[in-house]
Write a structure and sequence with these properties.
The structure is a single chain. This protein has 404 residues and is an alpha/beta fold. It has a domain of 188 residues: FAD/NAD(P)-binding domain, CATH 3.50.50. Helix content is 31%, strand content 30%. The chain contains twelve helices and 18 strands. The strands form three sheets. Strands 5, 6, 12, 13, 14, 15, 16 and 18 form an eight-stranded mixed β-sheet that branches. Strands 1, 2, 8, 9, 10, 11 and 17 form a seven-stranded mixed β-sheet that branches. It has a three-stranded antiparallel β-sheet with strand order 3-7-4.
Length: 404
């Protein structure tokens, strides 16, 4: 391929980059958009899920082609009981994201299998020496951990399983906290994609990011056996770890990634829910807002994106405080008690929490009542500097993804 040019070049074809490409194609069709991805397809190998109440205005139409399964409600399970919540729940897949972006953009506007050697405000140099001139560059290549931040990890291994007979699940189990507790707060997550296909994920709110894949596969097999599901075939697998943030130096984090006049997006910009690790609602809202900017020059988008991410960081103080409380005050094997109590609260409060839109009344309600952690220890943690772990990954990190 000869050297080329674009109005906007998106680096990284994962969730954030893919949604930006879709939003631009839908709302700004006059712009030439190019997506550059080092993998062999867009989106990698992931299932992302979201509540219908997470979607920002205008988001429904954009994500509709991505939805692989949808349910009218979901369930949670804890030692003190089960609860069915009537909030619609949807899942999208990498395959759908890849297909949708390729359909929305011209055939030569998606470059996969491309290493990036150098990036400047208006030029990308690929590993094979080719260059791309761009009016603006958006860097959505993810992040190897979150430097200058501290907290914990939501780590997981999930398998798409075909059962020999119908599994009987009618709705997702977003959290099954009745399982034996290991390595922090452990729960199992189940998505019934069809009568004989179910995605089963073993998930942990843990202090470290290490994923012991053989052990988690054994635990998934044991969970299926306990449920009475005979596994005919494992159709697919994904694993990874998501940072959950309790504290950090925002300016130092930005300086770690920023380049002059290059916009940052996705986790690389710090756009994730501090406690759940969810990135989908933020990635979608960011993409829609970006596509409505009048000035899409590199410098203008860099300034705008920094302000957008900074506002998100400032708004996340409540959720970072809860992360501090969860990881620094609750004993690892008792962390499930915090979530068990949370899921007894009002359903609308839970919806706003996941969407990152908790009201003042919501925040008071979460923190009052019978405290899930010792009161004075919790206050000391919030006011002081808790001993949280740095959110840095090993030199060879596990695959990072966002199952939610």
């Amino acid at each position: 391929m000869d050297d080329r040019s674009a109005d906007i070049a998106v680096l990284g074809g994962g969730l954030a980059g893919g949604l930006i490409a879709l939003a631009l194609a839908r709302l700004r069709p006059e712009l030439r958009v190019l997506v550059i991805e080092r993998g062999d397809r867009l989106g990698g190998n992931h299932v992302w899920s979201f509540f219908a109440t997470d979607l920002p205005e205008g988001g429904t139409a954009l994500v509709e082609p991505l939805i692989a399964a949808r349910w009218d409600d979901y369930e949670v399970r804890f030692p003190r009981g089960r609860r069915q919540l009537r909030t619609p729940y949807h899942s999208i897949t990498s395959e759908r994201l890849d297909a949708a972006v390729r359909t929305a953009l011209p055939i030569d506007a998606v470059l996969c299998g491309c290493e990036i050697a150098d990036v400047t405000a208006n030029r990308i140099t690929l590993g094979d020496g080719r260059t791309i001139e761009a009016g603006a560059v958006i860097d959505a290549r993810g992040s190897a951990g979150l430097p200058h931040m501290a907290g914990g990890w939501q780590k997981f291994l999930g398998q798409l399983i075909r059962t020999t007979t119908p599994h009987g699940l009618e709705r997702p189990i977003v959290m099954d906290g009745t399982v034996a507790q290991h390595d922090g707060y452990r729960f199992v997550y189940c998505l019934p994609f069809s009568a004989n296909e179910v995605f089963v994920e073993d998930t942990y709110y843990a202090d470290g990011p290490e994923v012991d894949a053989p052990l988690l596969r054994e635990r998934i097999a044991a969970y299926c056996a306990d449920a009475g599901w005979q596994v005919a075939e494992v159709l697919g697998e994904e694993s990874g770890c998501l940072p959950v943030v309790g504290s950090g130096d925002w300016e130092a984090f930005r300086a770690e990634h920023e380049m002059p006049d290059v916009a940052l997006a996705g986790v690389r910009a710090g756009l994730l829910h501090p406690l759940t690790g969810y990135s989908f609602p933020l990635a979608l809202a960011f993409a829609l807002d970006l596509a409505q900017q009048k000035d899409v020059s590199g410098g203008a988008l860099a300034v705008w994106s920094r302000g957008w991410a900074g506002q998100h960081w400032r708004a996340g103080g409540f959720y970072r405080m809860l992360t501090k409380m969860l990881f620094a005050t609750a004993a690892p094997h008792l962390r499930f008690v915090v979530l068990q109590r949370f899921y007894r609260l009002n359903a609308a409060l839970i919806e706003r929490f996941y969407a990152g839109k908790s009201t003042l009344a919501d925040r008071v309600r979460v923190l009052t009542g019978k405290p899930p952690v010792p009161f004075f220890k919790a206050i000391g943690t919030v006011l002081g500097e808790p001993a949280l772990n740095p959110l840095t990954l090993p030199e060879r990190p596990p695959q990072t993804g966002a199952p939610r």
